[in-house]
Structures are given as C-alpha cells and as structure tokens.
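User: Before I run my own analysis I want an independent prediction to cross-check against. Here's the chain; please return only the structure tokens and, at the end, one sentence I can use as a sanity check.
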Amino acid sequence: MSPRLDLRLAVVAGGVWLAALASLSLSAAGGFWLAGLSAAGAGGAEVWARRTERAILGLIVVGLLGVSCGAAVTAWKVAVRDNPVVAGLVAAQAEGTATLIVGDDPRRLRNPAVPERHLIPARLIHISAGGAAHDVDVRALVFTTGPTWAELLPGQRFRTEGHLGPANGGGLEAAVWIARGEPLDLSAPSWWQDTAGDLRAELRAVCARLSPEVGGLLPGLVVGDTSALDPRVAEDFRATGMTHLTAVSGANVALVIGAVLLTARWCGLSRRWALPIAGVALVGFVIVARPSPSVLRAAVMGAIGLIALALARPRRAMPVLAAAVAVLVLIDPGLAGEPGFALSVLATGGLLVFAATWSRRLRRRRWPRWLAEALVVPAAAQLAVAPVVAGLSGQISLVAVPVNALAVPAVAPATILGVLATACAPWWPSAAYVLVWLASWPAWWLVWLARNGSTLPMAALPWQAGMSGGLLLAAILALLVAGLRWRRSRHWVAAACALALAACAGVVPARLLVGGWPPADTVIVACDVGQGDALVLPTGEHAAIVVDTGPDPTAADRCLRRLGVSEVPLLVVSHFHLDHVGGLSGVLGAHPVGRVLAPAFAEPVEGHRAVHDTAAAHGVPVTIPEGGERYTVGDWVLGVLAPATPITGTRSDSNNNSLVLRAARPGVSILLAGDLEETAQDALLSAGVPLGADVLKVAHHGSAYQSPAFLEAVEARVALVSVGAGNDYGHPNPGVLGVLSRAGARVLRTDEHGDVAVTVGEKGLSTASRRPGNSWALSPPDGAPRHPPGPVPRARRRPHRPRRCRESAAVARNAPSSAPPAPRPGRARRGGAPRRRRRPRARPPPAGRRDGRAPVTPCAASPARRGFPRRRAGSV
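Assistant: Structure tokens:
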C-alpha cells in the first residue's frame, strides 16, 4: 500500500498562489483588503477549530493564512508597480531618456516588415522626460529595433532614448519603453554572464554546421537558446505537446544532475561526495542557461523531482514542492500569472502524485519496468497540465502522450551530449562538433516525431479556451481518475467522460467519417492565420494559387502543409499591410513560387520593401498588374478589377488601393476584395465593374468601412470573413454580417470555424470548416452557382415579381374553433361507461376564402430581398 501524501503545505501553497493571481488584477488597496479579510477569517476559523478539533477546519486556517500572505506581498508589489510618477508619465506617453537594467535575454520578434525587432524584459531605474528627472525602480518591457540589441546580456545597464507606453494588465510590468537608436553607456556584464554568453555563442556556432531544423533545436534543448529555432519546428512541437523540450525545464535539470550523480557513483564516490558535486553542476548549468526566473524555477522543480524519484519518497517530496512554490511566489508574485510556472508546478506534482502509483500497478501486471516508466511519466505529466494547456490553446492534444513517450529515449542522450559539447566548445571545437553530430541523431528523431505527429488525423480536439474551459476539463479528468479507482464504475465513467469530451469539443460523427482535409472539389480555402488574410485556390495536385500570407510565416506554411500544397505557381499580394504580407517568408521559403503579383501603390513603405526584398532573396519575380488584365493558372482565370487608377486622400490609401481580383473556373466564381473600403467600393459600383460572384472574400476582415450596396451587388452565396479571434479592432462588424445574411449569403468566419473551405459539386456549393486538431465538418450543398464561371457583364437587377405564398400552418392551427368535438366510442371502463377519446376539434375555414383553403398573399409583403428568394444563413 502506497504511503498517503502529506498535503498540508500544498494547501498553504495553493492559497498563496491563488491570492497572488487574484491580487495582480486588483489595486494595491484591494490586495491589502483581501489580506486583512483572510487573516480575520483565519483567526475565527482557528477559534472554531480549537473548540471542535476538526482537521478540515485546520486546513482551512492554514489555507487562509496562505491567502493572507500572498495577497499582502502581491499588494505591496502592485503598489510599487503603480508608482504615481511612472503612471503619469505613461498616461502622457512621455518622451525622453531612460536608464534600464537588462533582466533576461532579448527575445527576437519575427516580423519580416520590421527585421531585427526585439523584446527585452528590464528594470526601469531612471527616466528624464519633460525637463525633469525621476529615480524609479519598476519593471518594464523594452521594444527595440536593430542587431545591436540582441547582444545584450542580463545584468547590463544601458541608457536609451524613446518614449513610454502602457503595459498590458495582469502582470507586474509598469510600462513599455519604445526605444530609438542604439543602446548607450553600456556597462560591462558580470564575469559569469560573460562566460555564459560565450558558451552559448560557441554552441550556436557548432550547431550551425548541422541542418537548420536540428541545428536550431539543439541549443534550445540543451540551454534554452531558441534564437535559431525554425518556426515550423516550433509550431510542430507546440501542436504535439512537446514545447517543454525547446526550453529549459525541470527535465533538463534532472537529466544533468542525474548524469552527474550516476557518473560519481560509477567512479566509486559515496553519496556524501556525490551530492555536493551534483550541486556544483546544478549551479554551473543555471549560470550557462541564464539565471532568469524561468531557469531558476526549472532548477527548483527539477531538483525536487530528482530527489523524489531517487529516494522513492513522494510523501516527503510533496511538502518540499509546496514549500518551494510558496517561497517562489512570495519572492516574485508575477510568477503566479505565468503559464510556464503553472505547467512546471503541475507537471512536477503529477509525477509525484501519479507516476509512482501507476508504475507500481503496471509492474504488478508483469509490465517491464522500463516500459511502465516510459508510459506513466509522460501520461502523468500530461494529465496534470492538460487543463492549463487546453485553456491556453483551445484544444486537447490526443497525440501528446504517445509522442512524448516515444520522445523519452531521445531526450536524455541529446541533452547530455549537448551539455558536454557546450562545456568543451570554447577549448576543443573539433570534439564539440563530434558530440553535437552524435546528438543530432536523437534530435532528428524528435523533429520527425513532431512533424508527423502534428499531421495525424484528429491529432487534437477543439476545446473551449480560457479559464472556464480549463476548469471544465479539470473536473472531467478528476471524475475520470476518481471513477477508475473502482472496478464497477470504470466502464460507466469512461463512457461518460468520452461523451462529455465529444459534446464539449463539438465533435460530430461526420468528422470521423469524412475523408482527409481538404474535401474533394475544393475551390477556395480561407486559412485561419489570426488577424490577417491567407487564401488558397487549388490549381491541381499539390499546387495552388495563394492570395496574401497573413501576419505569421509559421501559420501560412502550416496551412499550406495541411492542404498538401507543395508548389505555388502564383502568389498574390493584395496590399502591403503586415497582416497580409507578414507570412511571406513562410510561403517563399518552403514552397517553390512562380511569381508574385503585387499592387503598384507602395505604401506602407516597410511592407513594400519587405515583399520585394524577400522575393528577390528567393529569386522570384514581382509583377505589377494593371486594371483589366487577366491571368490564367490551371483552370482559373483571374481578372484584375481594381485599382485602375491610384486612389489618394482617403481614410486608408493602402486599403483602398488593394488588388481586387475576380477568379473564375467552370462551376464557380470568386471575388477577392482585399481590404477595400467604402470609397473604393463605391467607385467600382459607379464604374460599372462586374462584381457578381458565388463566393465573396469579405474586405478588411468584415470591418464597418463597407458599402452595403457593394455587398448586395456581389450577390454572393458564401461570404468568407478572415479575422482573428479576440482582436482589438471590433472585426467583424455585426452590421456588415447582418447585410450579408439578409442578402442570402452563408457567412463563415475563421475566428469561429478555423480553416474554411468551399467546394463545388453536382448539387451546388458546400462549405467545410476545420478547427484546430484536424477535425472538420461538411455542410449541406446550397444549390447551383448563380453566376457564370467566366467573365460576366455588369450585374443587372432582376425585376421584382411578387410571388404568391400560403399562410403558415401555425396560423391555421391557432385559429379559433366553435364546433364541439364529436363523441367516439372507446373501451369499456370499470364503471361500465365507455372511455371517450378526444378528437381534434374542427377548425373553421380561415377568413378570406370560402373553400376553406388558406388565403394567398403576395411575397412582396415579406421582407425578402428583390431578385432572388431569401435564404437563411447556413451554419457549420
């Protein structure tokens, strides 16, 4: 029988953690009030507990004390964050000079329009603005541009010019500093930070001789350096639940310390000497990996997990883990709101609570020890972190446990060999390269697992994002774990949890029965790339036209990979805003592209330069079309409708000068409107440009800057809105969606449906949506196409012809009746009288017709639009 876990300190740690998380969103006064009320409640509960001597009340007392401590410390930190001087300067967006201290490594922001852009966590200690100087000490985030900033090391002090901006809530950062120019008056880093920087640079240089995917993964796997990590590899690791391998985690620390302990014991050293050596190795590893809060957290969690597994005493390890959590949160309350902290704590706790028990049960059933541990370790960790991951990502990975189980044998050799290569790289580069080459084989296995695991059908299930989704999954998993402990309830609990997962995730049988993505006869796919546009028009097997690339190279590349596109004969750029060209390198860098079609209007300048430079770097020509030109690619005929002449002086000249294309092929026509706004839309209407199409890509993400007459003139059967979930622009506008629905269009949004595809079959147009996780659903067809597939003349308004429609059956059923019901013989009752059955009462004929039939009224009295029968918007 396994020993019972001691959870008393866990209650204290939970109280500290929850209080800190709540106080981060409160003011300092609110945090102090929470601390005072918790302390008073703890005092009252303690008095009651002494009288009743109940253990549960004792846990409540210590939990409330933890809440009081966490709220008080966090309120004090919040008071420092809400410095009135800094708050006033932030409100005024003051410009001047600031002195800051680097807190962590600069993080490169991948933005092709603004290269070499970095985010640096720092401490703001002095600011001169508006002719006054202020000495402060608050946390800040620094946004910089330039290659020099990437060389900064933690602990360095620098001075820079720029201006202040507001920081996002929910943390301890008081402001955002937008820096201009280069850093000034740099102080020298400490010797250990300088040494760590040299070791990391040497490791990157040695790994650069390997393939880009493996060479970028190894530094992240060994010391958490992800500066050279391929974005596609990072996305594959995220989709398969292997993200923890690309950063320093408790597993890295445990592997390093474990290897040192095994080596020391193999050399004959006793535990008395082995443990100090392991401690020195731990300190050295923390210095090389940078003693940032995340690395320190990983060191604490990894050491606790290693001690627990080495001593096989989870009863003692759990209080140590709880004490470490409480101390870390009290030192830095900002950790309470970091997802990485929650993942580290829950993963370690899952190993302590579940791994040993599950492994013992499997060994009782004659499982080999190595196989049992290889299975239960990732299963226990994934079970513990699943609610947090589901709440953050909005999906539940179904391949995380098997993929992580298969990855376990490769993590240890790759990490240990990488650490040895890091140690000898500055003094013996040849030996370091040999070690890195040996480590590249297990690293290649990890890349292969992530790449193939992310493309498996039903790799993940969509889930409700946010705290509500995480709590719901936590409740389901708790019910599952509790129910599986009793043999009689196992089948019922498993069935109930499966039904709950299917119902909450929105999984329908059709998604399991249909084929792969995309569906057959697909004519257009709107990719879910966030707040941006990325459209794909298939031209043949593994080939497609791409219209815009969204804001992120990784998202654009992954969408093309999901669709099986390996060749792009034509890439269209509607205009040069970042949400349309930011993912250009993800298309040009991974797929052969024939040529790029781009507008002549060269604003914004950064986006225009990025498109032309990126295309030139890949040897792809850029063509500037003129109004009225046509391009034939496969079965598609693309006609350029706008811009015929440049439009200036509008709210957004870049949007109004977007390329507007009408793509047609046998059976369907599509209008690609870019980010066209009301001014340009009205100009197209006035010029008599043919706009009729079966599918409309709604302009500017469905913003309010739309012309209702333009939307009605298209007469689209399907309207695609490419928009990011939770965007700050209010897209899409409800009024615009209402106009499209009333016009008879089926409206599909990428923020709600994921990737959206339109197919053409014998019965007409159908739509399909693919949510994250490769699960998708097909909607019924919507009738034959309206518009001819080729170039059409100016769309004409069909004359309004009133139709005759009958009164609804519901009105007839509700009509009053005066005729009494006719008696009907029934079965004899015990009393002798036959039972009478009720007969429906006779209805009198409705008013207006003597023959008893419903009156006929013209459909012109209904709000249906002219020309075509009104249809309700379909749902996916």
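Sanity check: Confidence is low (pLDDT under 50) at residues 504-515, 791-835, 842-876.
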